[in-house]
Every structure is written in structure tokens, then in C-alpha cells.
Amino acid sequence: MSKVVRSSKSRDLAEKALEKKPALGEDIDMAKYSSTAEEHVYQEKPSKLPTEDKAQFMKVGVTLDDASQRSGTFVQMDRSVVHSSASGEGVEVLAITKALEKYDWLQDYWWRAVSVDQDKFTAHAEIDLQNGYFIRALPGAKVVYPVQACLYIAHKNLAQKVHNIIIAEEGSELHIITGCATHPMNASGLHIGISEFYIKRGAKVTFTMIHNWAPEIDVRPRSGAIIEEGGVFLCNYVCMKPVRSLQMYPVARCNGENSIVRFNTILVATPGSTLDTGSRVLLNAKGSRAEIVARTITTGGTIISRGYIAGSAPEVKGHLECRGLILSERGTIHAIPELKGEVAGVDLSHEAAVGKIAEEEVEYLMARGLSRDAATAMIVRGFLHVDIEGLPPELAAELRRAVDISEKELF
Amino acid sequence: MLKIEGLHVETHGKEILHGVNLHVEAGETHALFGPNGSGKTTLLMAIMGFPRYKITEGRILFKGQDITHASLDERARLGIGMSFQRPPIVRGVKTRDMVRACMGGREDEEAIARLAERLNMGELMDREINYGFSGGEIKRSELLQLLAQMPDLVLLDEPESGVDLVNIALIGQMINELLQKEQKRNRTRAGLIITHTGHILDYVNATKGYVLLNGSVTCERDAHECLDSIKKNGYEGCVKCLK
Asked: Would the pTM count as exceeding 0.90?
């Protein structure tokens, strides 16, 4: 997007990191992918997008036919932003390229929560910025309905690169549902998504991301959040569908006193999928708190479930929970919970458990008349339905719906 | 209702029951006595059909049907229900989900709410089943599930253990309801209760009592006489009694 003038410093750093291997996960040869795709037409009314694509959006919580329960909508297909609008009061939803043109100050947020030279993926996202979204809640605005955003790959072999910035100004409240999906196809593709979250003093953001990729897609999100005093960031991630590889390790920095972060992750690795994910929280300010919960299931794929909480200020509290179920003979779950306390007065804990469903539990349910399959399904459903404290009921219902859809296909 | 003939059961490769005979008619409730390790729980588990309890000889007839080789869930669906002494915690599965499952898919939220209230289970309905439950809460939760399931044959494994004096009356009342004790005749249900202390018999009337010793029934007589005799002469007295 040539019109946008971005800092040459970021560009220089990116140039140098174009070949930098990622610290975690399989390396990807960027040359294998195309960075061009046909342009898709912008639609004033998102309901006019192709039915086939809308069906895919629905599966990830993005509803375009009736957006009355949404405060804003953003849809990007391949490189093109095909719709962007805000209907709620006190909320802005823009294509990131438009937002960069509109607001000079946005430069100050660009690559502040994520490093531009972290690896080749961040570097390529800077050099070939295609688009992404900018969502902002104005100071004090309580945005009731969620803003929905969809990032969609339709072009075969595309390397989609997006950069998103989410800002919750002081005292605001913002809920976002992001769905990522592909056109029903059996082709390779790469998604690189940079997401930077800025949660100002006393603001609250809930971010629910549902991924529904395809068996040949590689996914490399790079996310970071900075939370100021009394801010709350709830981040939920669901990926239950086949994907070739996914590697991400978002980091949240609790820089303000009494700020709170919760990461909830629900993963299902089907045969052929490799999911290397986790969440990191740096509790840098007094009284900040973190909770990381991961529920992972393999039906034959590989999961590396990471978690890291570091406490470097007094009176911080963090808890990490990784639980994994192996539902097939093949399949790997590697839980790597890490805690680091750097001052006295931190309270950090973790629990991790990996295994199959306990026979005793299945039998308990069978003794109530459920068949073995029904009993297993009920236990798995219970395992996947994480109660997320602080999530508004309608969002919890949306999350549950997304889990339910995928869960039905598990058995 | 339930007829057990020459039942031999082994678990972990070791025979625990050596030819047990037992007969419970519809409308009757029988009590099982015996010291720890005598095989009482094994008997209930074998009747319920837990795969770890292998029937090597003999047979179980339920409502005239040979269920010796029927699976656990088949038996539950045929109308056998059991309250567990130490049920497992099932993380993520709420008490409410279990009660719904017991109702076999009939979703009657009002009935569930009424039952929960009567058993003083309101607050526990949306908790994970058995997670952090006290002994008494487990008993009430088990009974709630059975009341939702309404089995024809009720197997109760020490329903009174760990229950305080106030709650034991409530539990007794609920068991009587399960067993249609308020009906003087035409009862269609039957019960088999393991009791160590016999306290539950102050609330739930049992007709016949059995003493199990080392995997065999050594005594079979009126339940209350049986209990009195154990109190007076210990389990050893029961051995003589049979002779």
C-alpha cells in the first residue's frame, strides 16, 4: 500500500530479518507462496458476498446476513478488504491501511507490542503489508455488541499477510470475534497475522478467535498485548479443524498495576495437523494477574501446548493449566508449562495433565444408561466447554456454538 | 425381579465371590451385611455389570431375562441403577448434565429443579460432578441421579456413610421414594442395600438380610434380626447361625 508512509526504521529492520528463522515451529520457504491474488470487489452490504463464502464465515462466528447483534464488521478476502463498517457508538472499524492514512499517531502503535524483526514472518508482513483491521473503542465507550472480523483465504497458494491493531482507550469495553477461514478448497496457503492489542487504563477487551483453516494451510499468527493499569484482556482461541501447521506464542505484558489477562485455548489436532501454540504473560506490575487455560485434544495430530508466566513485580498471581486428551492410538500432546518468579511475593502455579479418558469416568456415565460412545462424547464435551469468567453470556454462547459445531464432527 | 444363581466373580484375576445365591422380588428391599473385604461391593458391581468384575460361573436374571453377559449400559437401560460409594470426578461435566443423562434424554428442567431443591442440591447443579463434594453431597448427588433415572432395581452402596444425622433422614426419605415405600402394595421396584452400620434401616425398611463372609452368603434371614445378631455376636456368630 504505497500511499501509506510508514517508518523507514521498521522497514530497515524488516529487510534484515526477511530470512530469519522462527524460534519455534517448522520453518517455511516463503518463495513457495504467491503474494498476489485477484482483487475482490468491495461490498457496501456484506450480505451480498457469495453464499458459499458466507457459510464459511458463519462457522467461525462471523454473521453477515443479520449483523444486528454486531457493533461492526470487517471482512478481508485474500489481499482485499471487501467490507468494513462500524455501527456501534464509540467504536471504529477500519482497514489498517485506511487507519494509517487517517491517523498519524497510529505509527506509535505500529510494531510496539510485537517486534518487526521477530522472524521472517513479521518481516514479510511489514515488507508486503496487504491489509488488516483497525478496531478502536473510544475513551469510556462500552461497546455492547461484539465487533466481528473475518480474514479469509480464497486464492490458491497465497501468502496472506495482515497486520491488525486493536486499541481500547481508557475505561472502554470492547468485544471482538475474529474468524479465520478458507474457501472450501484443497490447496496450500499461508496466513501471517500480526495482531497488536493496546488495552489502556481501566479498559476491557475480550477477543475470541476461531480458526477454521484447511488441511494444507500453514498459519503463523504473531500477537502481542500491552495492558495498562486496571485493564482486562480476555483472549480465547479455538482451533478444532484440520490445518497443516499452526505456530503461535502470543505474549501479553501486564505493565499496569492490577491488570488482568486470561488466555483460554481449545485445540483439536486431527491426523496430519501440527499445532504448536501457547500463551505467555509477563506480570510486570504490582498486583497484576494471569490465568492461562489450555484444553487440547488429539485425534491423531501433534500438539505442543506451551504456557509461560513470569512475575517480576510484587503481589502478582498467575495460574497455568494445560490439560490434554489423547483420543486415538496415534497422536502426541506435549505440554510445556513454565513459570518464572523474579521477586519475592509472586504467586505462580501450574497444573498439567495429559492422557486418555479415564475408563472409570466412562463407566460411571454408562451406569446411568449412556452408551460407551455417548459417555465418551459427554466427557469430551465437558472437557472442551471451559467456563470463561468475565465473558459476556452472548459471547460465551457464540463460543460454545463454535465448539459444538466442530465437536459433532469429532465422533 | 432379581435372581442370582451360583455366582462366581473375579476381579484382577482373583475370585472374590464363590457361588452367591440371592432373590429379590419386586416391592422388596434386602440388606447386605458383612465385614470389609467380604465381597459386598463386588456383588453390586457384578450385578450392575462393570467389566472389571468378571462373572466366571453362575448367572444373573433380571425381570426373567438372563443378563449375565449384558453390558453395563444395557443393564442400566433395562432398569438397574446404582449409587456409588466413591464416584469419580468428571471434570467439565456438571451435575445437571449427569441428571439430564439419567433422564435418558427427556429434558424436563422443571422436574430437575424440583428434585434438586428437595435434595438441597441447588448450588451443586452447576458444579462439576463430584469435584470438591463432601461425603454427604456425594450421597445426595447420587440419589438425585437415581431419582432422575428411576430404575426398577436400586443398588445402594452404603448410602449413609459420611452423612450427618439431619441428612440421613432426608436420604432415607428419598430412598423410600425411589423404592415406592409409600405404596403399601403393587410396588414395582426393588432394592439391595449395603450397610455397615445398619443406620439406614431405621429409615428404610428392609425385609431380608444377608451376611457375606469371604465371598459367600453365610446367613439369610429377617434383616433386622440379622442386624441385631451381628451387633450381639459379631459376624462370627452368623457363621454359627447358618449351621
From this structure: no
